[in-house]
Amino acid sequence: MYAKLTQHLFPGDGDEHGAIILAGLCESDRGLRLVARELHLPVDGVDYVPGKYGYRMLRAQFIQSRILRARDMKLAYLAIHNHGGTTSVGFSSDDFASHERGYPALLDISRGMPVGALVFARQAVAGDLWFAGNKRAELGTAEIVGNRRQHIFPTLPGKRSADPAYDRQSRLFGDAGQEILSKARVGIIGLGGGGSILAELLGRLGVGEFVLADPDKAEFTNLPRLIAATERDVWPSWLPVFLRERFRRFKVDMAARNIKRANRHAKVTSLARDFLDADVAEKFKDCDYLFLAADTMSARLLFNAIVNQYGIAGVQVGAKIPVGPHGEVGDVFCVSRTVRPGHGCLWCNGLINPSRLQDEAVPASAKKGYAYVDDAGVSAPSVITMNAVACAHAADDFLFHMTGLKNENAEAGWFRWNARKGLASYDSPRKDLECMECSGAEHSRLGRGDNFPLPTRPRS
Asked: How far apart are CA 141 and CA 154, in angstroms?
């Protein structure tokens, strides 16, 4: 969308051009975020014409159909034009006068959904946003989520000061890159063998904020795969048997402990709850990046929905060690599947199985082990090294994505490592143009934000 918009605004003629974006809303403890869903490009000379008061304007008919669509779909309406310049931009006095004439009426039509304007230079953007009651706010920053994340501002921010603790790694992506990590909020779903590794790696990279969700406690057979776990996390040996269950540690608390050991300034929200609970899922909708390390179909479905509905990049990690009925080991492999909003999703690629979703609706006692094998109650093999390969790849992709160092034309396939064959390969993700999750189809969830339901369990 950003590529189409900038090509339209800056075709090389040095003139002004216009557009409209309709965007979903995400309100959280971090404030308000708008998630671009639709781009509407007017035809110069037909829909974008000489202005009555300013230089150019969108025609009333073009505006009317889009503001009504924004109202009906509960989306924010954003009018766009461009100015000259490169790294700094702002509205002119004529622009502000136009907003004050027109936006109160647009707010009435939109039935309280926000309206506003964006003005772009080639590497900058400013925004004037209007809300019910004629309240106004400026746009702080815009982010383009693609193969790499780009940040654009009204004007370039000042130079950052270095944190000496991260001197060696900030020599790779600079002090600005380290600040991006320190301000990032990541969500990790599942803190078992894969999630505990991710928590450790991201904590040591200097990520500033974590949201963790996993309802399970540590078990004795988990210890070889949980980073820095000890027998005391399962039960203190001196406790009588009838008290041991009470003192078993939750996996999220063990992961939080490891993060704090790596970075005492990190903020960690530990939720010893199921990700599928509506109030738990709510905590993940305004993360900057999501890591799915739980392999139930219902967790995949909700992760996939949040990625596309809220414009958040994410990755699903996992390892598979199939064992036949007579003990023979099949192809041993692990995967790291990056999922970007609108770029082909887990549903498009047949990775969310409807029959398994139905199976997971049965009582918990009957579905134990579904994440690994079809026979409930039987856990498949799991080895920390396989988890480590997938998680290291996922964390590295996160690092280069967030700091903007990933090449724009970098490999976009899903990483697969076959340990028995010693073979690395990439699976090319498919995109269904009618997918109701990630496509721009009329009733899809892409970019819909808070005003569209998530596949969660209702709040109790």
From this structure: 7
C-beta neighbour count of 175 within 10 angstroms: 16
User: Per-residue b/e over 140-154, b at no fewer than 16 CB within 10 Å?
Assistant: eebebbbbbbeebbb
* pLDDT tens track, the chain, 460 positions: 999 999 999 999 999 999 999 999 999 999 999 999 999 999 999 999 999 888 899 999 999 999 999 999 999 999 999 999 999 999 999 999 999 999 999 999 999 899 999 999 999 999 999 999 889 999 999 999 988 999 999 998 877 776 888 889 988 988 989 999 999 999 999 999 999 999 999 999 999 999 999 999 998 888 899 999 988 888 766 677 677 777 789 999 999 999 999 999 999 999 999 999 999 999 999 999 999 999 899 999 999 999 999 999 999 999 988 888 888 888 899 999 999 999 999 999 999 999 999 888 776 555 454 444 344 444 667 889 999 999 999 999 999 999 999 998 899 999 999 999 999 999 999 999 999 999 999 999 999 999 999 999 876 5
Residue 277 has which token pair? 């609970």
Angle at 110 between CA 281 and CA 8, to 5 degrees: 85
Question: CB of 46 within 8 A of CB of 58?
Answer: no
Tokens 């090509």, residue located: 7
CA angle 20, 22, 24 (to 5 degrees): 155
User: Which tokens go with 383?
Assistant: 């080895």
Burial grade of 443 (CB within 10 A; 0-12, 13-18, 19 or more): exposed
pTM beyond 0.90, yes or no: yes
Domains of the chain, start order: 2-140 (3.40.140), 164-427 (3.40.50.720)
